[in-house]
Amino acid sequence: MVFNGKPQHTNVCFWYLPPAIRCMEDGEERRRRLHKVAPIIKARMMEYGTTMVSYQPQGNKVNFFRMVISNPAATFEDINFLIEEIERLGQDL
């Protein structure tokens, strides 16, 4: 990642779909289960002390992760670690 010295901020919003939810048809049950995913993963992150990312709903959308990257020293490895940690902590949901 190359930085030009100017502050760079990235706001990334996304859902993590655990394996058990990926094949479900879109509907109320899928949305109900997906709504619980981000809060559970965040709680596990705090319990293990590995990392932390925020989440929120928006309008009629269920909870999603909201990651703001404002540290110019952040690397691809840092982002990959976060994504891998979300996957690790959410596999059983």
From TrEMBL:
GO CC term (a single one): cytoplasm
Enzyme class name: lyase
Subunit relationships: Homodimer.
InterPro entries named in the record: PyrdxlP-dep_Trfase (IPR015424)
GO molecular function, one term: glutamate decarboxylase activity
GO biological process: gamma-aminobutyrate shunt; gamma-aminobutyric acid biosynthetic process
Chain segments annotated as coiled-coil in the UniProt record: none
Record flagged with keyword Kinase: no
Similarity comment: Belongs to the group II decarboxylase family.
The keyword Lyase is assigned to this record: yes
EC numbers: 4.1.1.15
Official protein name in the record: glutamate decarboxylase
Alphabetical UniProt keywords: Decarboxylase, Lyase
Species lineage: Eukaryota, Metazoa, Chordata, Craniata, Vertebrata
